[in-house]
Amino acid sequence: MKTYITFIILTYSMSISAQKTLDTIYVNDQKNVALFFPNPIRQGITGSANFVFTYNREKEQYFGLLQAKPGMVSNLLTVTNDGQVYAYILKYAEKLPKFNYFIEQKESIGNEKPKIRIPITEKKVIDTYANRMTYFERFSKYLLKTDHKQIATKRKKGIRLQLQKVAYIYSLHIGTRKIGFNNLKFI
């Protein structure tokens, strides 16, 4: 009885972990076999030099062409631009049963990329106008507290010309608002 239960469990576990059986595509050296995928092909690789899979590498397209020379059985692995992976057994045959294969997405053996959705975090919008205004207010208070030092004084015909160390400001236009503190320069 124990051996019977062990045999059933072993058989059941082997059937669960078994891979999906791959379809066989027959190819020869006289005719092209066309494979049409549900999404554009990004990459295609054959397991043997006897088989050639061609597709447009520069502009992704939905189809690829297969040709073969007589030789051993091989495989084809194709990845589409959405990450779906397709695998097939390739065999050489003198007479081809089909020339065109329309492959459905359900025939995919898996996905190259995991299907984990990364939550999108909202970016905090910083109000640059409000930040600028607080900066301008603090800087204005600083300028009012500082002493204006005399650098040079010149008198001529009763007129006194004095050079002081102060900050002067160009105005900045944002949209239709005019802000009076920008490009601070010291002389």
Rounded average pLDDT = 77
CATH topology of the largest domain: Immunoglobulin-like
CATH class of the largest domain: Mainly Beta
Q: What distance separates the N and C termini?
A: 101 Å
Count of distinct strands = 13
- The count of helical stretches stands at 2
The number of domains: 2
Report the sheet with the most strands, covering strand number, pairing sense and barrel closure. Answer: 5 strands, mixed
Proportion of helical residues: 10-25%
Would you list the SSEs in sequence order as H and E? HEEEEEEEEEHEEEE
CATH architecture annotation name of the largest domain: Sandwich
What is the SS-derived class? alpha+beta
Uncertain runs with pLDDT below 50, 5 residues or more? 171-179, 181-187
Which percent range describes the beta-strand content?
Answer: 35-45%
Shape: elongated
Oligomeric nature of the chains? single chain
Question: Can you describe this structure?
Answer:
The protein is of the alpha+beta class and 187 residues long. The chain has two domains: 18-111, Immunoglobulin-like; 128-186, no CATH class. 18% of the residues lie in helices and 42% in strands. It has helices at residues 2-17, 128-145, and strands spanning 24-27, 33-36, 41-46, 51-54, 63-68, 74-80, 84-92, 100-102, 110-111, 149-156, 159-165, 167-174, 177-186. Strands 1, 3, 6, 7 and 9 form a five-stranded mixed beta sheet that branches. Strands 4-5-2-8 form a four-stranded mixed beta sheet, with no helix packed on it. A two-stranded antiparallel ribbon has the order 10-11. A hairpin with an 8-residue loop joins strand 4 and strand 5 (63-68). The longest helix has 18 residues, at 128-145. The termini are far apart. 10% of the residues are buried. Residues 171-179 and 181-187 have low confidence and may be disordered.
